[in-house]
Amino acid sequence: MRSRRSTSGRSSPSPGRGGWLRFGLMDRLRSSQTDINRLKARGVDLEELEPGVADRIIATMRHDSKAAEKYFTSLFHADDRPRLRAPIISVIGERDPATDYYEERYTEWGFLSDTTALVVLDEGGHYFLRYRADELAAVLRTHRRLEAGDRTGSWWVHAVSTAADAAAAPSRDEVAPSMRRFLTIASGQQLSMIGSALTGWALPITILVDSGSVTQFSILAVLNLAGLLISPLAGAIVDRGDRRRVLVVADLCAAGIQAVLAGLIFFGDLQLWQIYTLIVALSVATSFQRLAYTSAVPQLVPKRYLGHAVGVTQMTNGVAQLIVPLIAAGLLAWIGLGGIVVIDVISYAFALAVVLLVRFPDTLPWRPARAAGHRDPPGLRLHLALGRPAGDARLVRRAQHLPVATPAAGLAAGAVLRHPA
After folding, report:
1. Rounded CA separation 170/191 (Å)
2. Do 196 and 317 meet the contact criterion of CB atoms below 8 Å apart?
3. What structural domains and CATH numbers belong to the chain?
4. Geometric angle at alpha carbon 290, from 287 and 291, rounded to 5°
5. Angle between helices 306-357 and 272-300 (to 10 degrees)
6. Are the CB atoms for 61 and 402 separated by under 8 Å?
7. 212: left (phi over 0), alpha (psi -120 to 50) or beta
8. Which 3 state secondary structure label does DSSP give 233?
9. 21, 28, 75, 132: which one has the fewest Cβ atoms less than 10 Å from its Cβ?
10. pLDDT, tens digit, 9 for 90 and up, residues 303-348
């Protein structure tokens, strides 16, 4: 395919995973309220819309996201897909919250072109196409002199990747992200979460049944919130540290705490103050574990499959909450509290062994949102052509939640494809 240049703006290819189950019926039955709440949080005034219009917006966005996924999936798996001779230049706003991990994701366009480049607009927001068109036009003229580090006024060439770079043999110490690596870690964390949930269900019930004191039961429930109170500090530590190390330490501490609890149950005289102390320590360790695990997901999985991986992570949390009430009562009657705690210790030991055996890639993990104080110019809106005058709604879309718009938008919305006559 002959072209002079190809530029993609604000989006990355979003292929699906072949062979994964697709729940089309569930999508039709799913409520729009979750997506509507996300849009409200992003500043969309939905109250001005007529009844049913918000549902139409959500349905259209879901349809476009699925169409984009289908389109890019077919391109990724097609052996005879056309390739561009021109470089693909990804233009990113420096302050755009919808383009996380752009330092790595621009290379994903390498399946369509031998040369990919990343250009960053200084202080650019999500809607730079609307108010920085002159700079974008200047970016399009850089395709003949792509050199990383070149700075022209308020934008610069951040990085350039070529087919030779992609074909270079990785070093022996280099670890590549993969869904298999992620799913291995997820399986260990899933078992540990189920084990923790079993103990968290059985221990308060045992105290309530043995003592008959609702007060002691309530105190235990309150102390279990210690992890929630410590989560801001834990998040800061996880963000600035090595996720794998934090996960190892958290799993090790949680396993040790449960082992101490099991020893007191079987061989000691378990006191109420000991239970309270162990519960607080376990809640803190679990908080570190879950924060490190969830923030390491983008590090473990290829960024183009990040949406699928996040879904698996959410599923692990839901499965633990669903399974535990169904089996905890039977296990408590069958093997008692001590047996449940032993299961918890084994689950943490398995999770710890998995983390120790699986190496983490040296890629970008989750990180806090960039510069929340940045705003696009006043009055900038994305109006919806729904048969009403412009100004009825504002639509702010974040790709982390609603991946990419349409197939055309993925390659050219915010972009120019120019072919010789």
Report:
1. 33
2. no
3. 5-172+382-418 (no CATH), 179-357 (1.20.1250.20)
4. 80
5. 120
6. yes
7. left
8. helix
9. 21
10. 878 878 888 888 777 777 788 888 888 898 899 999 999 999 999 9
Rounded to an integer, what distance in angstroms lies between the CA atom of residue 237 and that of residue 250?
A: 12
* CB burial readout 250-262, b (16+ within 10 A) else e: bbbbbbebbbbbb
Q: What are the residues facing 110 on neighbouring strands?
A: none
Residue 44: the pLDDT is 62
Task: Classify 9 as helix, strand or coil.
Answer: strand
Stated as kind and residue range, the H or E segment containing 124 is none
- Report yes or no: 14 and 307 within 8 Å, Cβ to Cβ: yes
Distance CA 250, CA 231 (A): 13
Residue 310 CA to residue 299 CA, distance in Å, equals 12
Q: What is the DSSP string of 363-395?
A: S----PPS-TT--PPTT------SSS-TTS---
Residue count of the chain: 421
Asked if 49 and 75 touch (Cβ cutoff 8 Å), the reply is no
pLDDT for 263-305, tens place per residue? 999 987 888 899 999 999 999 999 999 999 988 888 888 887 8
Q: At 297, which amino acid appears? A: V
End-to-end CA distance of the chain: 13
Which residue shows structure tokens 């607009």?
121
Report yes or no: 329 and 323 within 8 Å, Cβ to Cβ: no
Angle formed by the axes of helices 214-223 and 179-211, nearest 10°: 160
Encode pLDDT of 51-108 as tens digits.
Answer: 677 778 888 888 887 888 788 778 777 777 778 888 888 888 887 777 778 888 888 8
Residues 6+ apart with CB under 8 A from 146: 87, 89, 115, 117, 157, 160
The owner of tokens 């290819």 is 13
What's the pLDDT tens digit per position in 156-171? Answer: 888 888 877 766 655 5
What is the number of helices (H) and of strands (E) in the chain? 14, 6
CB distance 93 to 149 below 8 Å: no
Which pLDDT band, with edges at 50, 70 and 90, does 155 fall under? Answer: confident
Tokens 């398995």 belong to 350
